[in-house]
Write a structure and sequence with these properties.
- It contains three helices and five strands, in the order ααβββββα.
- It has two domains: 38 residues; 50 residues, IHF-like DNA-binding proteins (HU Protein, Chain A), CATH 4.10.520.
- It is of the alpha+beta class.
- It is elongated.
Length: 89
Amino acid sequence: MNKTDLIEKVAADTKASKSDVESILKSILENIKKTVKKEEPVQLIGFGSFGLVHRKARVGRNPQTGEEIKIKASKSVSFKAGKAFKESL
């Protein structure tokens, strides 16, 4: 399922227009991004949690040459499925 499919299904379920659903979904996603960027978790009870993960700089290997390379520190987003979501699978 992609974003367009999701918008169509939500619009059908709620009898709302696709444009209204699209703007609501856009707002939800933007607010999740902004909150995680501020290093605050987003917890959707029954669904899951989004959070920011800091990865330290480290040394890796180029798989083709075996040469050591430096990998910079980075930030990434984590998602942990909630209990109800896991149990529904």
